[in-house]
Amino acid sequence: MNRRALAFGIAAVAFGLNVAAERALMKVTAGFTIIPGLADFTPVFNHGVSFSLFTQNTDSGRLLLTGVLAVVSALVSVMAWRAATMFSAIAFGLILGGALGNLADRWAYGGGVFDFLWLHLGRTSLFICNGADIAITAGVALLLLDGFLQKPKQT
């Protein structure tokens, strides 16, 4: 399989899984424990980005944030198209699928994303995320790993 097909295929799967999971989980209104002391199902709409940074409460702010995220998604698409290794193709595919999943949420839900997985250590809150965030995080981790596994180029 060529790297481009792999990257965009992974992106489509990550996007589709995120959309399907969110549609199913939006019907669940009560939170519940998944792993005691570590993970809970806690449905919320987040109008910021990672860790609720840059929360936007105005229409123009949400539109600007969504536009910036659309540009970032386009840039990630270019990087996926140019992926040098199969490993980086998978990584960029995960990042792109997650980014498009969050972008679709922002268009569908008035500038917010549906987050549902609250991660914490006992009573210490870490963050709340969704499937798209998990795909992005996994993709970034794979890119870092790919960088460490690359052999130095001979000059």
Short synopsis of the structure:
This protein has 4 helices and 4 strands, in the order H-E-E-H-H-E-E-H.
How would you describe this protein?
It is a single chain. With 155 residues, this protein is an alpha+beta fold. It has one domain (3-148). Helices cover 57% and strands 17% of the residues. The protein contains four helices and four strands; from the N terminus they run αββααββα. A four-stranded antiparallel beta sheet has the order 1-2-3-4. A hairpin with a 3-residue loop joins strand 1 (32-35) and strand 2 (39-46). The two termini are 30 Å apart. The model has no long low-confidence stretch (mean pLDDT 89).
SSE layout:
Layout: H1 3-25, E1 32-35, E2 39-46, H2 59-81, H3 86-108, E3 113-121, E4 124-129, H4 131-149
Helix pairs in contact: 1-3, 2-3, 3-4
What's the structural domain tally?
1
Largest sheet: 4 strands, antiparallel
Straight-line N-to-C gap: 30 Å
Helix and strand composition category? alpha+beta
What keywords describe this structure?
single chain, 155 residues, alpha+beta, 4 helices
